[in-house]
Amino acid sequence: MVDPNIEALFKPKSIAVIGASEKPGKIGYAIMKNLVEYGYEGKIYPVNIKGVEIKIGNRVFKSYKSILDVPDEVDMAVIVVPAKFVPQVVEECGKKGVKVLPIISSGFGELGPEGKKIEQQLVETAHKYGMRILGPNIFGVVYTPEKLNATFGPTDVMPGKLALISQSGALGIALMGWTILEKVGLSAVVSIGNKSDIDDADLLEYFETDENTKAILIYMEGVKDGRRFMEVAKKVSKVKPIVIIKAGRSERGAKAAASHTGSLAGSDKIYDAAFKQAGIIRALTIGEAFDYARTLSNLPEPAGENLVILTNGGGIGVMATDAAEEAGLHLYDDLDELKVFSNYMPPFGSYKNPVDLTGMAGAESYEGAIKAALEHPEMHSIAVLYCQTAVLDPRDLADIVIREYNASGRKKPLVVAIVGGIEAKEAIDRLNEEGIPAYPEPERAIKALAALYRWSRWKARGR
Amino acid sequence: MVDPNIEALFKPKSIAVIGASEKPGKIGYAIMKNLVEYGYEGKIYPVNIKGVEIKIGNRVFKSYKSILDVPDEVDMAVIVVPAKFVPQVVEECGKKGVKVLPIISSGFGELGPEGKKIEQQLVETAHKYGMRILGPNIFGVVYTPEKLNATFGPTDVMPGKLALISQSGALGIALMGWTILEKVGLSAVVSIGNKSDIDDADLLEYFETDENTKAILIYMEGVKDGRRFMEVAKKVSKVKPIVIIKAGRSERGAKAAASHTGSLAGSDKIYDAAFKQAGIIRALTIGEAFDYARTLSNLPEPAGENLVILTNGGGIGVMATDAAEEAGLHLYDDLDELKVFSNYMPPFGSYKNPVDLTGMAGAESYEGAIKAALEHPEMHSIAVLYCQTAVLDPRDLADIVIREYNASGRKKPLVVAIVGGIEAKEAIDRLNEEGIPAYPEPERAIKALAALYRWSRWKARGR
């Protein structure tokens, strides 16, 4: 059953911004601006003790001096006032009947035991009124299906099927920027900060049944209730893949993490074992995490083990083959069946897998080969590789892939790697915008496909 | 001693393009265009059997019907005519006294024993006249210090200190595009194709003493004379670092490579051992190769083992620390000396290495900390990490790094990682354009720095 308070974090009918500001540069302004400019369609009520007018583009908001003055129900109240005013504001939100409180304000548990105590009192107050708290010490929340961007991070988040949860504020905002730059589509971004109340496990449970989320990516520094988190993660993993980045693998790294987060050092092996048991896919770097997230949040599960690699360059075909073998993927090798590809290559091509359409391969070769691979019942997953040549503009290849993959109903996993210059980069962006995982290197495409296989196999084993 | 014929490949005083064309879209036009537009300052003589006029921008070239008609000495003749005309053209070049012949034309050894034989005859003819052949089956040659771009690949190669050698034509052109997109500075690009005459070893020997080249990157499919290559590589490695990408590591990959190049399968372990012995740094992917090439071609060798990591985010600091420990780098840990950094951080920062300047770190914090690290005699290498925040525009950080690193005389290795969105990408590009290796992820910066350490240690051991 979905917790209605947590649902209000993603699908609020109305939002108050307490500590909203009329001054560009202030966080209380940035949140108003993102709410308006990202196109949130519910009601927005700025609350500002001086009752200022706030202009965003050509909209003017009259602010209320207290949330209690708002003449309407409020589902979510984003709190941006200085720490010392937060307890009173939480109390007022309770009286108003708000459901959920993302508390942006910092100056609580992260400062030490004193702040921690105040934080716990906030949670007690919230629970007394049946409210939940996200944070404090966060940058906000995004939910793209509702055009909700209640953060002071970047505005133009690309909609998609990946939910991103970040414990770190600074890194979380940086990662939002990264997803925009790299065309990673997101369903949600949640900054969980001090996790005084709502934590990773609560969010996993929400995303488990959220129809707009297909995969979850967590940047984690530490867990409070490890047992609960692992139990929930194991359950959710059976339904949707979870990728985690958790730094602190090495001895020195773990020590640095301990001094940074106050969590115990030396516990990384325990995390690692627990992640494996829960079916969590651990990514070692940010890049790897998003590489995996692209396949996991966009592609269907493979119906079998047979991978076909289509390429116009022997070299990149071999690179992909190395990566496939190293990642435990099986190259389909029924030569009778692979012979179908000989129709789409010159005589000196090779239909052995990796299928080498040769450097002469143009639009028709690729189109025919991709279609054949999509149609063949024994070819379960496809990697399309392209080394930029003068024969075929990579952007045209992108269009061919998009057209054929859509026409096929996207029933099997397909990844793309295009090596080249500016046009290759544009082609990659175009594919990713369409939710077809595309990469600038063959190995990255294959490793990301392998992550999908790994999750799919784990899920099947666990049943 | 430098072979004058090979020197003519990079520093020709005059160039003939035999098979030059007036038609855009033709290779014989593309080469003329690149020569002119990249700014080659020597003389260019198009040769075309019909004697056509060739217009490039507002320059008009009258072509000669034969190289023998050119009223001047010709150092290099780029040959683009169909295979069947090549033997005669080579003969004429010999009579003309040309020094070196990049043969773009394909249709020789790559087609089988028949073509191989003709190829060998071409080499015999060339040698008879004291000429050398590059290729055939190549896309040409670039040497940026002479503004020489005699390829049909992209035009705007970014000047720098890395020499790129590619056995694959298609991949080589794609990699040229990649270096432009990713701001990797090049001294040279050489397509070696069928290697009928000039091979990797010849080129390594040239680059060993080339004052414009600081590191060499080879994309290799196979070697002909393995013993000579390894001997030369070992000698050159003592002077300049060599990075090699050679696919075919896995069993299946090696088989695919064998069917693609005709080289022996299963020999990868031998290559790997030989590379290690010769001090060659093997990169497993294209991305890794260029990551390494950035540090190796731009940075001075470290004077010692002490690495200092400066960061504004605990999380990315921990990631970098993990990567450093995994790559065998030593984090400087003299707390008395590290205390200098406490001057550049708020009270809740941490001067322990990784030095956490905190999320509040602005221009002054970074400037002070970078300066202190550059000046300190016991801090031998520096990694500057930045997680994009609203406090400091990453482009401003880039400018600070460029200014301080230049002011210090670039005497110790410094790498940068900036995690974030579009502004972060711009900052990274700006740094790379200035020859300061910058990456979008902390681990990549650290691994690339580690490649420089590895090479430097190997060199020291061998003495």
Structural summary, described in words:
2 copies of one chain form a homodimer. The first copy, chain A, is of the alpha/beta class and 463 residues long. Chain A has 2 domains: 4-295, Succinyl-CoA synthetase domains (Rossmann fold, 3-Layer(aba) Sandwich); 301-462, Rossmann fold. Chain A has 16 helices and 20 strands. In chain A, the strands form 5 sheets. Chain A has a 7-stranded mixed β-sheet with strand order 9-8-11-10-12-13-14, with helices on both faces. In chain A, helix 3 packs parallel to helix 4 and helix 10 (286-298) packs across helix 16. The two termini of chain A are 22 Å apart. The mean pLDDT of chain A is 95. At the A-B interface, helix 5, helix 8, helix 11 and helix 15 of A face helix 5, helix 8, helix 11 and helix 15 of B.
Which of globular, elongated, flat, extended, rod-shaped describes the shape of chain A?
Answer: elongated
- Low-pLDDT residue intervals, each spanning 5 or more residues of chain A: none
The CATH topology assignment of the largest domain in chain A is: Rossmann fold
Main structural class of chain A: alpha/beta
What is Rg of chain A? 25 Å
Mean pLDDT of chain A: 95
CATH homologous group name of the largest domain in chain A: Succinyl-CoA synthetase domains
Quaternary organization: homodimer
Sheet with most strands of chain A: 7 strands, mixed
Any guess at the CATH architecture of the largest domain in chain A? 3-Layer(aba) Sandwich
Strand order of the largest sheet of chain A: 9-8-11-10-12-13-14
Which percent range fits the helix content of chain A? 40-55%
How many strand units of chain A?
Answer: 20
